[in-house]
Amino acid sequence: MSWLRGRAPLVTLLIAAFLATAVWVNTTSFPEGSWQAQWLPVFFGVSALNFTLRAAVPLILGALGGILCERSGIVNIGIEGMMLAGAFAGFVVKVATNHWPLYSSLSVSVLAAMLAGGLMGLLHALFSIRFRMDQIISGTVLIILALGLTSYLYDRDAVAQGKFSAVAIPVLSDIPVIGEIIFTNPPITFAALILVVVVHIALFYTRWGLRTRAVGEHPGAADTMGVNVNLYRYANTIAGGMLAGLAGGFLVLEAVGQFQEGMTAGRGFISLAAVIFGNWTPFGAMAASMLFGYTQALQNELLLAGVVAVPRQFVSMIPYVVTIVAVAGLVGRVRPPAASGKVYDKDGH
């Protein structure tokens, strides 16, 4: 049993306890000026939990893209570049279609973001499979390429008008606290949560998923059974790129509303950490993304609460320190797909 699955009941219990505490904190009136009224909302308030989910969405989508790549045997550290390309493409198309009806413009922009990410995924697959480039170098090239092109092509006078707004799911959105956090969100947030379930089912309960995992674990055996190893790797890397592009699209079309140079700000690397921390499983990666998102929310809430005893720079370091500690603590405890990062040569040369 894997490290993560062996602790699944404990993780589930901790999540349930956390949510129960959040409901209690947000439905209880504490004495004004008390430490409960001052500090409990910082850790369990609705604003902190809403920020957690918003911060986690691009990480979830990026991690799902990384899982698809690595489960098929392709290491993808270029998630950051794919995200940035998706964000820029979504922004460009949104600016070009500002005169359209809002949701039509946003929908086309989402498709553009996914297409840009998919093209970056195709480029990574070509480098890694066709030209047998070291996959770490290929991913690094994608990041540098995305940073350079988006900075060069970015028109600072361009303005995207409008972004996705929250949609409340009837009945479910009326649940105290939980309804406001989970069931009242914009479309891409809902899509990210649904995609976790979809990717999990696809990977572990379908023929495609079985073949994908076989390609990532033992491509020679998969090939013997008639599976086209490199075709599966191409398909999964492109699909992973599309998910990473959607993560970038989220930043422009749902979170910020505008494009900024380098706006992914390391989220692709944190997504990669979520893949490892989640043991290459969709639900594990989502839990890790939520943890990293919570650290970002905590950073934000501490600054808003006026914590000045600790320098602001140290508070801002919290998400990255937690990411490093989490991944470093798992070294030797988790095992990536056996063939991850290895070029498959059917002829043996």
Approximate strand percentage: under 5%
- By helix and strand content, what is the structural category? mainly alpha
Contiguous uncertain segments of 5+ residues: none
Q: What is the average of the pLDDT values?
A: 90
**What is Rg?**
21 Å
Q: What is the helical fraction, as a range of percent?
A: 55-70%
DSSP summary, beta strand count: 2
Describe this structure in words.
With 349 residues, this protein is mostly helical. It has a domain at 50-264. It contains 16 helices and 2 strands. It has helices at 3-6, 8-26, 35-44, 46-71, 79-96, 102-130, 135-153, 178-182, 187-205, 207-217, 219-224, 229-256, 267-277, 282-304, 312-316, 318-328, and strands at 167-168, 184-185. It has a two-stranded antiparallel ribbon with strand order 1-2. The longest helix has 29 residues, at 102-130. It is globular. The two termini are 35 Å apart. The relative contact order is 0.19.
Describe how the helices and strands are arranged.
Blueprint: H1 3-6, H2 8-26, H3 35-44, H4 46-71, H5 79-96, H6 102-130, H7 135-153, E1 167-168, H8 178-182, E2 184-185, H9 187-205, H10 207-217, H11 219-224, H12 229-256, H13 267-277, H14 282-304, H15 312-316, H16 318-328
Antiparallel strand pairs: 1-2
Helix pairs in contact: 3-4, 4-9, 4-12, 4-13, 4-14, 5-6, 5-7, 5-12, 5-13, 6-7, 6-12, 9-10, 13-14, 13-16, 14-16
Short description:
The chain is 70% helix and 1% strand. With 349 residues, it is mainly alpha-helical.
